[in-house]
Please model this.
Amino acid sequence: MNRKFKEYLFQKHILVSEGREANTFETLFALANLFNISVKEGRELAAKEMISVASCMLGVRVPDPFYRGFPGSVRELTKDQLLFDQLVHYSVTYGFGNFSEAGHSIFEQTFERMAFRENCEIREFVIITEAEAVKRMAEYVEGMLASTRPLSDHQFDLICDYISEYKYNVSECASKNTAARFLVRLRSLKFARFLMLSDVIKVVDELAFSCYGTEKLNELNLKNRDRKLISGLIDELFAYSRCDLENCYEKKAIWCGLLHHIHYKAKCERAKEFLNAMRGKGNRSAYSAFEKAMDKGDIPSAVRILAEKKGSGALLRNLDYIVSRVEKPEDLSFVLESIGTKNNIILMQLFLNYTKDRQFEKRFGRSFRFVKHGTMRIHEETQEEMARRRSALTLGQYRSVSIFMEENLRKNLKRKLKKVYVDEGMKKIALPLQESASQGGFGVLSKGSRIAVPEGKKIRAFTYWEKVDDIDLSVIGMTADGRSKEFSWRTMAGSQSEAITYSGDETSGYNGGSEFFDIDVAGFMKQYPDTRYLIFCNNVFTGSDFDQCYCKAGFMIRDILDSGQIYEPRTVQTSYRINCPSTFAYLFGMDLEKREMVWLNVGRAGKTTVAGESSLIFLMDYFNITDVMNVYRFFEFMAEEMVKSPLEADIIVSDRTDIDAVDKEVIRSYDHEKLLSLMNS
Model:
């Protein structure tokens, strides 16, 4: 089996065996000794290649940090020594280009390592055969394809590889964005059956970005093979009778230019009608009629037009705009009653939006964000825009919409499952609602999910890289009222302490480098009592995108008095690849007051190369997601009966490894595919 599939299954605590070997005991011992991996099932299938897979996923061969004795020796250096070290290494890296070996502090003394292991949790894995692994992968692929939301680059690449390797036939693809990407990547018109004629613009947009590196469709100069692909797609859609002419009017100018550019010739009467419509002067789009009704203040007519011609999804996407113009209570009731969507993901996203805490929005304005081409685009409302705003909702309106969304969710999901046992810990796990700007790897959870940091433990955040000169790991502290304080290479010379320690600005260069932060939660709160949250960021200082290099990031939960090993794989909670097509990524956060790590995992569009130069206010939404909706509550909505014992359940939702789950379906916090399938059921 291809290594990439083995690594994906490793994220699910599954190891794959390609045949029995004689050295099973040695393999099992190495897995336990190096990585705290205990094999629960399939021990007889253990093979030495599994050590290599685990090493890659958990990071055994990590480049030396700037300070060999981190963090002990770092705290002993004066501010002047720290600053001088950085200047020397910048001079070497950027001046002389000496990348022959990792740099170390010129002041550093010998550091005696301690001779004990740290206390850390055992990871329970199973070993399965290659044939069983192929079946498991098919289940995961089907779960991802059932999602109506766009996939992340990591998920999409994995499915493409699975299609290619195992000749998998895609029989369902719920997301039009995903279908458009498949058509471009695999250059197969069979994906046209998942699209409508208006979606051709999505396909062209994907083609422009992935093949030509541009988002400017009006300046696109397609090659002949791509013109033929788009022309063939249009013909195929007419053959399937998938022509939604009214929706095409919304992009009429783009259509007109595209049809001219590809020299499209109609092959049927419906196609001729389409060509004349796009080249003519009229505009019969649903949105045009909708806007006319809104301008007249005729809310019911506007809602009817949008619901009938565009569907309830379009109505939901314009809900803020519509509700903000409502003046009569009966009109608000009509708007909500017109929403008949069965799309649970949209309902949950809106439920979160209308239920969230508005304190930051009141002070800093609203944040508008969407994902395109694997990165998040963010626009934060300016003071001028706040003053001109017409779509503000009252607290009463927010509450009315929130209640409506919750009631509809309950109605849609009610009694879809029989007896369900859900562990209390699932109240801290978020649902995978907006993961298309996420990266993939071991330990990755949905945005907003929380992991407890036990008393007596500290966090060691890390990043390491190859094929690029310099990547920076930074920490931004946030107060409860939105003020920030930067901890990075620019500021840490004067901030090293027992509470927060930085390894130094590693500039060992193209062949590999690394950086670390140590955070002692209790010590940090004592030293910085106003700081409530921490946000960890990665940026490529030298300006190339993450997808042009090799970079991993994650965190360890370490003993306060640790083993002395800088990188201890046994303590790694997550290690995942940062490969977004941008220079900046938000990794994870920390809620200091609750002693919990909070998943962010957002690739941000743009060319930011220094942390602290972009606003972080929009990230505060992720810190409160599980208070509103979480995995526990989702299964409460779905279950016919919530049982108190796993023995009584048909489905068990838990990360516990001591539960007897024979003949029962088990869903873990990292089973995103199973959750997506249920959310779209």
About this structure: Residues 286-413 form one domain. Confidence is low (pLDDT under 50) at residues 111-115.
